[in-house]
Amino acid sequence: MAPVGNTHSPRVPFVGIIHTFMDHGTGGAARNDVLGKPLGYVQTKFAVGTIPPPPRGSSLLRVIGRSVRLLGKWWFTGAGSPSPFFADPTRAPTSEPRILRPEERHALSSGSAR
N or C: at which end does the chain have fewer Cβ atoms within 10 angstroms? Predict the structure, then answer.
């Protein structure tokens, strides 16, 4: 089972969401209507398949600048807390990742783990 999202730590309240499991077409809504338009792309060297053209006016520097500005605001105001991903006050993850054994991975890839 894959995670719905990944995050770094309670100090960095960004969540990477894996959108491929979502049913974006329900009710005729496009993915951008449901999730919002992309602001930019990072780590594209790891992309599989064709990368969409970057959004107009987007650049890596703008994406990083926006991220730093948001982080500063969240740290200063405490807006990143509480986190649904980390317990207060221990800051321990609410869900520990688990690495599957080879036979568990095989069962999932063959479709027999249902």
Answer: C
